[in-house]
Design a protein that fits this description.
heterodimer, A: mainly beta, seven-stranded mixed beta sheet, four-stranded antiparallel beta sheet, B: six-stranded mixed beta sheet, 12 strands, 55% strand, globular
Chain lengths: 113, 115
């Protein structure tokens, strides 16, 4: 079983909906990440939180809004998404940023109608 | 700028064959970290190994082995006596600088091990 838990596993939403993806880890890691992965492509980094502060935002559209309520939780709020946003969204955590191995969740497979 | 190249898009082998996955990286930093991750069909990425730029010692872990050569900027991964469960997409990744703030995956190699 993965130590990083993502919910939901699957999400279908319309372009006008508002939804949130959730990620939780209890390994005491202080860095958490959101990635977007399209089919047959590598994961692309979206956001990095280090000690609950947003440290990296890779020019992601504002329709994606991250939130880190505490060191164990990471949310990704979605609003007015486009069909091209359909992808696998992966959450990861690590003890520190960059040089430490990242532990990944199973991902949320998002489909935008 | 940093870049990771995995020239093999897809590889198919028959069970029990050995297979090597290539990874070539490009960086101007003297301090960097290299990783390999496995992504099975279930979707979760699994960390396999991390190497820093100052440690060129090769490593073996069971059927897995890694060959790090700074002279050719390569960090290749070999699976010995492959098994069907090894079928997955394998990503090489590079993290640059002492803080490793820049992290990028290579394009991945899809390995299919046939029974």
């Amino acid at each position: 079983d993965t130590e990083v838990t993502q919910t939901p596993k699957h999400l279908v939403m319309g372009m006008t909906n508002k939804k949130s993806l959730k990620c939780e880890q209890h390994m005491g890691h202080r860095a958490m990440y959101w990635y977007k992965q399209k089919a047959k492509k590598p994961p692309e980094l979206m956001f990095v939180y280090s000690y609950e502060k947003l440290s990296i935002n890779e020019s992601v559209p504002s329709r994606f809004s991250p939130e880190c309520p505490n060191s164990s939780l990471l949310n990704l709020h979605l609003h007015a998404l486009q069909p091209e946003d359909s992808a696998l969204y992966l959450c990861a955590s690590s003890q520190g940023t960059g040089i430490q191995p990242q532990h990944f969740g199973d991902g949320t497979r998002l489909s935008i109608l | 700028a940093q870049k990771v190249t995995q020239a093999q898009t897809e590889i198919s082998v028959v069970e029990k064959e050995d297979v090597t996955l290539d990874c070539v990286y490009e960086t101007r930093d003297t301090t960097y970290y290299l990783f390999w991750y496995k992504q099975p069909p279930s979707g979760e990425l699994v960390f396999l190994i991390r190497r820093n730029s100052f440690d060129e010692q090769n490593e073996i872990s069971g059927r897995y082995s890694w060959n790090f050569q700074k002279s050719t900027s390569s960090f290749n991964f070999t699976i010995t006596a492959s098994q069907v469960v090894d079928s997955a997409v394998y990503f090489c990744a590079l993290s640059e600088g002492a803080d490793g703030q820049n992290f990028v995956f290579g394009p991945g190699t899809r390995l299919s091990v046939l029974p």
